[in-house]
Amino acid sequence: MTRAVLTLNAGSSSIKFSLYELENGGGIAAEPVLSGQIDGIGVKAHIKAKDDKGKKLDDVDIPLQGDAESQHHEALEFLISWLHDHEKGWKIVAVGHRVVHGGERYSRPMKLDDNIIEHLTRLIPLAPLHQPHNLDGVDALRTMMPEVPQVACFDTAFHRTQAPVAQAFALPRWITGEGVKRYGFHGLSYEYIARVLPDYSPRANGRVVVAHLGNGASMCGMVDRKSQVSTMGFTAVEGLMMGTRTGALDPGVMLYLMENKGMDVKALTKLLYKESGLLGVSGISPDMRTLLASDKPEAKEAVDLFCYRVVRELGSLAAAIGGIDALVFTGGIGEHAAEVRRRVCLQASWLGISIDESANALHANRISEPRSTVDVLVIPTNEEWMIARHTATLLNL
Ligand SMILES: Nc1ncnc2c1ncn2[C@@H]1O[C@H](COP(=O)(O)OP(=O)(O)O)[C@@H](O)[C@H]1O
Ligand SMILES: CC(=O)OP(=O)(O)O
Ligand SMILES: [Mg+2]
């Protein structure tokens, strides 16, 4: 049987999975032999999976009940039994997991044991939409294959190269000293983009802003393909407006809600993480596809605000890294929503961005005109490949 690495990537609205064969000389194959995702968790869950020839193995809705929380667990159970039915012919020798928060302690992939899992469990309050689902996946796979080593790959790790000033909040020193600082997330996605960027642009090692726009959304400013600054912070609720998250919010709004509306931590957590963003502003859906297809004014307002926030943060990140040579769009929205990219690029023309609208409509890799002083690129991210590679490297497979 061929040896393979399984990857699991639980996002806020999706669970993505892949199976990568190990190559004879060591290392993992470029393409997975099996891959897919359950997306739309919390709205309308759907599984899509394909084999190495691109043959569709599944493409159906899955009826999940309850709130997004319980749907996530149900989706995982569905996936485990799906994998049981489809992983024949390969010997899974390792499992790699995306774990969103590594805190201060973990800045590189780690082979999981009870101690590390216990520490990661303590970080759940810092990433309530992700960490519980990531650890749920670890738990399920450890039960399913107890002999197989499991590796955690952290979303925060890529950003640990940032200068102290980029990580700091203007808080008293004793709070900062306890690790309350900006960590940044989507690190596996940014690491993948940084790795492949030279294949797409001669400016790869310059000042690059990558916009990872998905259900969770953030942007990262890099120089020399290393993270310098991120819109996400201590938690993944900071920065851009997202599917259900506020992004940056005047802290005074929280004080106001506590003082005048009697909201406690639980109510505020729900508001900031689950009821705001595209969903809160539109009152319709957290899903960009639905909002772009809607002619309701509230849907338009939500999309307008989403794009406006990206444009503002783009200016901020370009300022932080001293200018911009390339802008990369990635993530579910960044890769597929041409309208969002179009609006962002038009509003950011002052930066020297000039978009080629027909290339953009076709989702070409390069969507800037030759006269643009900024290379604008659309690059599909691949967190799964990054996880598989880290897992194989750490375990010497
Ligand atoms: N064809 C499309 N057009 C517009 N938006 C899309 C398209 N496909 C996916 N999206 C959006 O991408 C988002 C999900 O992104 P993704 O990166 O998969 O999420 P997650 O953060 O859960 O990993 C959703 O808002 C979805 O509407
Ligand atoms: C960190 C984060 O927001 O992840 P996702 O985009 O997968 O929700
Ligand atoms: Mg994601």
TrEMBL record:
Mg(2+) binds at residues 9, 383. GO terms for cellular component: cytosol. PANTHER family: ACETATE KINASE. Pfam families: Acetate_kinase. InterPro entries: Ac/propionate_kinase (IPR004372), Aliphatic_acid_kin_short-chain (IPR000890), Aliphatic_acid_kinase_CS (IPR023865), ATPase_NBD (IPR043129). Homodimer. It comes from the Bacteria. It comes from Azospira oryzae (strain ATCC BAA-33 / DSM 13638 / PS) (Dechlorosoma suillum). GO terms for biological process: acetate metabolic process; acetyl-CoA biosynthetic process. Its EC number is 2.7.2.1. The active site is at 155 (proton donor/acceptor). It is found in: Cytoplasm. The keyword Chloroplast does not apply. The lineage of its organism: Bacteria, Pseudomonadati, Pseudomonadota, Betaproteobacteria, Rhodocyclales. This is Acetate kinase. Catalyzes the formation of acetyl phosphate from acetate and ATP. Can also catalyze the reverse reaction. It is an enzyme of class 2 (transferase).
